[in-house]
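pasting for the record
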Amino acid sequence: MDLSKKYLKVCKIDDANFGKFAILCGADYLGVHVLEEKDIGSKKDLIDYLVALNGGVVIVTKITNFDLLNKIINLHHPYGIQIHCRPDPDLIKKLKDANPTIKIFSVVTGDLEVNLIERVSDLSEYLIYDSSYVGGTGKKNPLALIDKLKKEIKDKIFIAGGVNSSFLKKHKNLDVAGFDIQSYFRENDELHYDKVEEISRLIKGPKRGLLSVSVTDCSDVENITKEYADNPHYNYHLDYSDGSLYGGFVTEKNEMVEKLSIMKNVPLDIHIFSRDEDQINNLINEFKTINSYSISSFFIQYFPQLNLNRFDQINNLTISVYYKDFEDYFNKWTNFTDYLSVILPSEDIEKAPIVFDYMGKNKPFFLNKEIWFDRKLNEDKILQLKKIVGIHFNVIVGKEITRSQKTIKEIHEQFSL
């Protein structure tokens, strides 16, 4: 069973930045808690924002009063509603009759009678199989119940409770609809952008059509990152170079550390340029110590002597290849990763025919990869890439766009056409 065919539900979304990132990572559904009557209306702005992004908002509640449930549905117009209590078939039917388009996510546990689960399944679009009705405990579910269920019921089930990357790798052949994850993405009230990226790579696979904004040359990251929720870009990008790979490209480490300390509630990639393999590993660990939650992935710059096997245990790794090293990389490391970045010539991107010829001749191979293009990309170059490449890709933009009169929204709209 292919994990990429599974649905992903990210639960307890209470932050606009985090919700937007989950959507761009491919989350199919977003659970927003409106647990009690006093919570009704308190998250309207957040829910309206997520719905406007075409997020599949599922209201998670412990309310069982029909009138109050109707009030929630009429106020928020969510994709679905999840009543996180022992399922009541009569209430579900009444709710569906009054709201034919609403999707019902019913919660079942291992101690429920199979005939009740079957009855509830007939009335619900999906079933959340959780360890209890408490929610967010991180407690793993015994999976024995799954084997007792009919296939048409399994096809509706989301596994919840203790789902993490290890669980997914171990149970990748589990015959269910998808996974509902909450506690793995949260630790001490911190939101783990890195773990959303990790799970996204496992379940949803390579991403396409995304825009990342480099803030390497930005002197005011505090203000620019405040605009994350209001713009369509995927994340931010920070370069660190010690000058050992490219002597004319050096970044200040103190400035890097300061930016990492500020950017703690937005997703960002770190791109490391260094010839020293030990230094690369040390920098990854050091940067994680400063900001362990928001760094969604690390880019390592390839050079011909680099032994990539030293980095195969790093989560969310993307290999960046300078266009002149493209042939060398693919001669040695063709199947090392599905996540690649290509640094193009600074002026004329058509000076990199080896990149585009190779991609053209191996189009089926690259269709299943996540490809990022980088280096002084402006609007014209992005449009040029769309004509040349022939597959969906992602771009990293910097001062060439962020300092122009074009807004990130306008660039994204043209890139996405």
